[in-house]
Structure formats: C-alpha cells, structure tokens
C-alpha cells in the first residue's frame, strides 16, 4: 500500500504496479540498503504496508539503510548508486554509543548523504523498524501530517540526527515521550537539537490535546530555540496504547566516560587523575579526555 497526498491509498499486487503507483505520487521515498542488513531491511520495508519503495526512478527523498555495527571500518564505504533527490538521508543503527569502528563508518556515510539519523539497535529487525518508522513519520496521513518539507526544514544545515520511539498507556503521552528519549544511545545530547519532528500515534480517542502534551514534554529535552514540528495519526490496532516517534535534528554525542570504548582504538577506557581532575583515558593508545561528538 502506498499513501498518496490527501490520505488516499493505492493497493498494489505486483512489483511493477508498486513502481508505477509510487512514481505517480506527488512525493515518493526511495529506500536503498548498504550491506547485507541494509539490503534485507530495504526489501522488507518495500514489501510491507509502508509508503516507500525500492524502485522509484525520480524520488523526492532517498533513505540509505545501514547497520552501523556490521560496517567494516577498515573498508571503503561505497554506497549504492541512487537517483538525484532533493533530500538524501542515512538511517543507521548502532547498539549503543558508537564505537571507534562505528564512528568511522558513520563519518564515511555522512560524507555521502545530507544527514545521518542514528537509531539504537543492531541487525535487520532493528534497522527495518527504524527505517519503517522514519518513512511512516513523513508519509502517513493523520490528524495533522508531517511531510518531507518538514523534514527538510529541521535538517537544514544539520548533518546528524537521532530517531527514537516510545510507548505508554492511552492518556499518558508524556510517558511515551520520556520512554522514547530513554531509548537513545548513551551519551546522546538532545539540548543542542535544532529541530524535532514529533509524531504521536494512538487509538481513535486520541486528541490534539494529547499531541500538545507530547510536544510540551519534548520541549523540556531540547533548547528553547529548537524548531518543533508535530503531527499525529490514528491506528485502530492501538486500543490501549499510544506511541511517540521522534526525529531530533542536530543532536550531539557527549563526552566519553570510563568503561566506554576508546574512540581511537576501541579498547575499554579507564580513568586518569591529574591534580583534582579525573578524566577518561586509554592505557592502550594514550587517548585522554577529548570530547567525542557525532558530525553536525
């Protein structure tokens, strides 16, 4: 199924019908995979009931799916060829704070796309969920829609973002938002975020007031100047729950801490005391106390 502007749906039964229908839409998203997990996730997204495809010839946006934990940091990152599009994003899963190898992969991928969106996780299932959530946020119709223009707005002049999803019982959108923030990889700083897409999904009884509460909760986690764009949609299958899906543009990766992997060599960090200061350090390569941030 592909969701067209205005909420109309087009049902396809063959791959050729899928390609023709998506190309006919006012907006289309092409999802391509990098690596084995990325290619499998791409196929699952295209085959599922999501408004995206792996075969649009003239897309309005391209999403590159990659499992950061499976990328060989010592090998050249060669992303698949894609059509030129107004917006090219990479959705990359990492299991926790990026290791040295994962950071190298993120840096290499970032050089080839407009922005990299990091989601916590690893493997095909987590990557498929992350890409599916990202596509759904900007393409599904609802009470109030978020679209590709909104994504372009929050990612203007921003190179790094984060995706997080949380759920709670119906009537408690604030907890759903808090649970979403709780899934972010360790060390992700949301205060510097320049923009946020807030999408609330719930049963027919969900109201604009629920969305407003979710937005207020989000604002408590970001700076006062962050551009927050919100939307909401109804899911009849969520009779007793509510889901908050957030895309934060312009996040940072905070200082490393003892026990984290060294960003230079990947060994476990210990501590080094100099006078009254105690800083993380690496006994293997000599790294000490440097702030490690994702690209922006």
Automatic annotation (TrEMBL):
GO terms for cellular component: cell division site; cytoplasm. The keyword Metal-binding does not apply. Residues 144-260 form the Tubulin/FtsZ 2-layer sandwich domain. Keywords: Cell cycle, Cell division, Cytoplasm, GTP-binding, Nucleotide-binding, Septation. The keyword Transcription does not apply. GO terms for biological process: cell division. GO terms for molecular function: GTP binding; GTPase activity. Coiled coil: none annotated. Gene3D superfamilies: Tubulin/FtsZ, C-terminal domain. PANTHER family: CELL DIVISION PROTEIN FTSZ-RELATED, MITOCHONDRIAL DIVISION PROTEIN FSZA. This is Tubulin/FtsZ 2-layer sandwich domain-containing protein. It comes from Natronomonas salsuginis.
């Amino acid at each position: 199924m592909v969701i067209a502007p205005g909420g109309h749906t087009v049902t396809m039964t063959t791959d050729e019908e899928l390609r023709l229908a998506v190309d006919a839409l006012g907006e289309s998203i092409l999802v391509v995979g990098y690596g084995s997990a990325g290619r499998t996730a791409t196929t699952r997204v295209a085959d599922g009931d999501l408004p995206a495809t792996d075969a649009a010839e003239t897309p309005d946006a391209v999403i590159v799916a990659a499992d950061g934990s499976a990328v060989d940091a010592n090998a050249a990152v060669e992303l698949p060829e894609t059509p030129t599009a107004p917006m090219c994003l990479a959705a990359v899963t990492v299991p926790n704070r990026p290791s040295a190898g994962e950071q190298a992969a993120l840096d290499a991928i970032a050089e080839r796309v407009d922005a990299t969106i990091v989601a916590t996780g690893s493997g095909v299932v987590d990557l498929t969920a992350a890409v599916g959530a990202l596509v759904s946020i900007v393409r599904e119709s609802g009470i109030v829609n978020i679209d590709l223009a909104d994504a372009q707005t929050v990612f203007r002049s921003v190179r790094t973002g984060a995706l997080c999803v949380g759920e709670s019982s119906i009537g408690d959108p604030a907890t759903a938002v808090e649970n979403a923030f709780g899934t972010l990889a360790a060390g992700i700083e949301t205060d510097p975020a320049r923009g946020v897409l807030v999408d609330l999904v719930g049963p027919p009884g969900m109201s604009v007031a629920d969305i407003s509460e979710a937005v207020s909760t989000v604002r408590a986690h970001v700076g006062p100047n962050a551009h927050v764009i919100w939307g909401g949609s109804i899911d009849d299958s969520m009779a007793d729950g509510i889901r908050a899906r957030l895309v934060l543009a312009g996040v940072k990766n905070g200082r490393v801490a003892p026990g984290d992997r060294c960003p230079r060599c990947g060994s476990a960090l210990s501590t080094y005391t100099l006078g009254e200061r105690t800083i993380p350090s690496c006994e293997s390569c000599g790294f000490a106390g440097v702030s490690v941030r994702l690209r922006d």
